[in-house]
Amino acid sequence: MIQDAEILVVGGGPAGLCAAQAAAETGAKVLVLERDYAPGGQLVKQTHKFFGSEKQRAGERGFQIGEDLLKEIGTNTRIRIMTETTVLGCYEDGVITALRGNKHLKFRPKRLIITTGAAEKFLAFPGNDLPGVYGAGAVQTLMNVAGVKPAERVLMVGSGNIGLIVSYQLKQAGVEIAAIVEAAPRIGGYLVHASKIRRAGIPIMTGWTVKQVLGDGQVEGAVICQLDDKFQRIPETERKVECDVICLAVGLTPLTELCWQAGCEMKFVRELSGHVPVVNDNLETTRSGIYAAGDVTGIEEASSAMVEGRVAGYAAAESLGHSPEIAAQRREEAIGDLRQLRAGPTGGKINAGIEKMKREGGAVHVNLYRYSH
Ligand SMILES: Cc1cc2nc3c(=O)[nH]c(=O)nc-3n(C[C@H](O)[C@H](O)[C@H](O)COP(=O)(O)OP(=O)(O)OC[C@H]3O[C@@H](n4cnc5c(N)ncnc54)[C@H](O)[C@@H]3O)c2cc1C
After folding, report:
1. Fewest CB within a 10 Å sphere: which of 207, 222, 227, 236?
2. Ligand 1 centre distance from Cα of residue 61 (Å)
3. Average pLDDT estimate for 257-280
4. What's the gap in Å between 45 CA and the centre of ligand 1?
5. Closest atom of ligand 1 relative to the 166 alpha carbon
6. Number of helical H runs and strand E runs in the chain
7. Which atom belonging to ligand 1 lies closest to the Cα atom of 165?
8. Is residue 366 part of a domain?
9. Rounded CA gap, 240 and 196, in Å?
10. DSSP track, 135-195
11. Model confidence pLDDT, tens digit, residues 21-74
């Protein structure tokens, strides 16, 4: 049986929850499908205080923002959230398939909002399949969600915000950080995070990388080595590091499988961290009726993911004729909030990426498989 849905949101992270909230606010009925056992996306594991603008809840801890969003949404009868439901397919006739337990479900939404977030990147080196080599997301989940101390001594690879924040949280949990190695000649994350790490006495080694894992059946250490300005290993710079976990924080890439499947036009944009769907200002993809918001449109931050969710939610509701004037006004306000968020120095890279996506992709609506209106 195919179930009808007015607006279907894939993913219950900050972008998905805000999209649902915005669409429901203007009168639409929304179904959110989330593969995890609880909604919240990345927010559930973020115990640190957020940056950004006050309007987007800077100064609050990520998990608290997630809890508040869920509280607000919980009282809205127009929103239904189905957890432990993984969307598998997005078909030409507009049918969406999902797996819940051992049940295969089918939906035919009038509008689809894809907010699937991102996947962690990995590195290739000998021994990277041994137990003890983790992505930073897994370490954060173990530590901040499951309450498990994931290691005694960690080698962190990557000095972006995630590598810096997770290192600090590990230190707070009583885990020793042997070092943070960073292939680039500069620290990637914000100075404020790097300063905290330095004050904690953790060395940040720029121009270094992990060469191989040491250990029989599990991580017992690592060999690190220095890199030249072309990222080539410099011979005879190898050093042994004792550790029981190697944590990779080497970036995220948009999780766009559903956009590809749906036939959305895709572009590789380095500044947005990978292939992204081409979208217009309302975050509608080149497949009419399908919107994308949050990290799936380019790796950024929860603050912008929430505002993007709102833009897509209002736009989808407006296109279905729900309080069109109010929805249009709030959508415009949200677009203004996005511009403001990206106006600072940290927005430069994203703005350049969006420009490139639009210039090279030209957000043209192909209307191949138009959703019902
Ligand atoms: C360590 C760390 C620190 C950070 N610090 C900050 C910060 O200080 N400030 C800030 O603003 N941002 C921060 N961020 C970034 C922020 O967490 C992300 O940008 C934000 O969560 C993106 O929101 P999203 O909704 O697009 O994706 P996500 O939060 O990743 O949510 C996507 C959701 O979609 C679900 N999903 C995926 N595929 C499917 C499918 N096929 N079917 C059903 N469900 C699916 C996932 O389970 C997930 O719940 C940080 C990130 C990390 C990892």
Report:
1. 236
2. 14
3. 96
4. 10
5. 1
6. 9, 19
7. 1
8. no
9. 25
10. EHHHHHIIIIIS-----SEEEEE--SHHHHHHHHHHHHTT-EEEEEEESSSS--S-HHHHH
11. 999 999 999 999 999 999 999 999 988 887 766 666 778 899 999 999 999 998
Over residues 224-241, the mean pLDDT reads 97
Mean pLDDT of 79-102: 96
Calculate the average pLDDT of the chain. 93
pTM (global) more than 0.85: yes
Q: Which two tokens stand for residue 77?
A: 């009868």
The residue among 192, 219, 248 that closes a domain is 248
Using most ligand atoms within 8 A of CB, pick from 32, 46, 180 the residue to mutate for ligand 1. 46
C-alpha 133 to ligand 1 mean position (Å): 22
333: three-class secondary structure by DSSP: helix
Closest approach atom of ligand 1 to CA 85: 43
Residue 106: what residue type?
K
Residues with CB under 6 A from ligand 1: 10-16, 33-36, 41-43, 46, 50-52, 86-87, 115-118, 137, 140, 161-162, 165-166, 255, 294-295, 300-303, 305
SS3 state of residue 286: coil
**Token pair in block for residue 126:** 């000998």
Range of the domain at 152: 122-248
Report the separation in Å between the CA atom of 42 and the middle of ligand 1, taken as the mean of its atom positions: 4
